[in-house]
Design a protein that fits this description.
Layout: E1 8-17, E2 30-35, H1 46-52, E3 58-66, H2 70-74, E4 93-102, E5 112-117, H3 148-161, E6 168-171, H4 177-190, E7 194-199, H5 202-210, E8 216-219, H6 226-237, E9 245-248, H7 252-259, E10 269-272, H8 294-298, E11 302-305, H9 315-327, E12 336-340, H10 345-354, E13 360-364, E14 382-386
Parallel strand pairs: 6-7, 6-9, 7-8, 9-10, 10-11, 12-13
Antiparallel strand pairs: 1-2, 1-14, 3-4, 3-13, 3-14, 4-5
Helix pairs in contact: 3-4, 3-9, 6-7
């Protein structure tokens, strides 16, 4: 029998969606709720727990919560690949948790697992969950380079970008969590001829170039118009014949500028991973798309979207490849921007949209980590029950 686990909030702190944002999410869109529904139960009484928890095989303590740009889409009613988080429900998120009670041989007490909080009232969700058993220095990395972030980079690049050593690749958000992994795979695993990235500050561009993550970094904020950004991309790529792969995390002006610089050889691939520049538009703003989409036709190019969850069956092989590339130094740079305490969920979330984050944004809610600081004010705050 194949075992899956479901993370169900037990007690006693949780972030709940109470209002649909219009534009950039605001603090009052969320509420921190504290409950004490188990205070009258004696957790040291195993018989009582067994009678009470017959449906459950795991009790998990949440250690880290992944903070992702996709959360903005999950709290919107716009059509998407997942149903929206319901009002009054816990925020959907990927987590790293510790097994503190178990009836499953697959997940012994003390195991560290990756799981999900699903964001609806009945918390009914089936997820394949795995033990995290590599030698990374921080559990938070299992939400980053070995979590959805790294897997998104992996499947977007290989399954949709189909990279080759002779390719020139252009990556938006190249200093971000996903973009930086895409760039390192393209440059150091595939050996692409040239890797070009965009970022929002000179410091980020310097970091990208000095650490050999990209060959050329472009500060897009220095280019106030699509024409100016397009010219900068052209200068970086046209000597070699234009762009063969575009990996887009941003959308809007960047995408239009990229479409103006596709390879003259034909067959360019545009991979749509995200459009963070558009996520916080309010209802009065019509999302902007590329006006020059006919360049896809004349350049014989393709533009394809993807959702990483479609590749769940392939996760184990992808993770093994990512581990190998980390161990042999192909992937060296995967920073976690760790915020401490569940109370800081909102600042962690909006840091993504202000561009102030430095790497993968993670919320640490417990002190059970092998490399991060103690921040658990109440060791019982972050427990979850799970069942098969």
């Amino acid at each position: 029998m194949s075992e899956t686990i479901i993370a169900l909030p037990r007690r006693n702190k949780r972030i709940v969606l109470v209002r649909r944002p219009e534009g950039l999410p605001q603090p009052n869109d969320f509420r921190l709720i504290e409950t004490n529904d188990d205070d009258n139960n004696n957790d040291d009484d195993d018989d009582d727990d067994d009678n009470k928890d017959n449906d459950y095989v795991l009790l998990l303590k949440t250690l880290f919560v992944s903070i992702d740009p996709a959360m903005r889409g999950w709290i919107s009613t716009a059509k998407s690949y997942l149903p929206p988080v319901k009002l009054g429900s816990i925020m959907r998120a990927s987590t790293i948790s510790k097994v503190i009670r178990s009836r499953s041989m697959k997940f012994p007490v003390g195991a560290i697992v990756r799981t999900e909080i699903v964001g609806n009232n009945n918390n009914n969700n089936n997820n394949n969950n795995t033990n995290t058993n590599t030698n990374l220095s921080s559990y938070a990395s299992y939400l980053g380079v070995l979590g959805t972030t790294g897997l998104t980079a992996y499947f977007g690049l290989f399954n949709k970008g189909n990279p080759k050593p002779q390719d020139i690749i252009l990556i938006s958000g190249a200093a971000g969590a996903t973009g930086s992994i895409v760039a390192q795979i393209a440059k150091h695993v595939v050996g692409c001829r040239k890797v070009i990235g965009t970022a929002g500050t000179d410091a980020k561009c310097k970091w990208l170039e000095e650490n050999y993550i990209v060959d050329i970094a472009i500060n897009y904020k220095k280019h106030k118009t699509t024409k100016s950004l397009s010219y900068a991309i052209r200068n970086a790529s046209k000597k070699e014949g234009g762009i063969d792969i575009v990996f887009d995390n941003v959308g809007s002006t960047f995408l239009e500028a990229a479409l103006s610089n596709l390879s003259s050889n034909g067959g360019a691939r545009i991979v749509l991973c995200g459009a963070i520049s558009q996520y916080n538009n309010n209802g009065s703003i019509v999302p902007s798309g590329p006006r020059n989409y006919m360049n896809l036709l004349v350049s014989r190019a393709t533009m394809t979207g993807f959702v990483v969850f479609d590749y769940q069956k392939e996760y184990p092989n992808a993770i093994q490849n990512l581990i190998r590339w980390i161990q042999n130094g192909k992937i060296k740079h995967f920073k976690e921007d760790v915020h401490f305490g569940i109370e800081n969920f909102y600042p962690a979330l909006v840091s993504l949209f202000h561009g102030t984050n430095q790497g993968k944004v993670v919320l640490q809610v417990s002190n059970e980590n092998n490399n991060n600081r103690d921040n658990d004010s109440n060791g019982r705050d972050n427990e979850h029950r799970s069942k098969l």
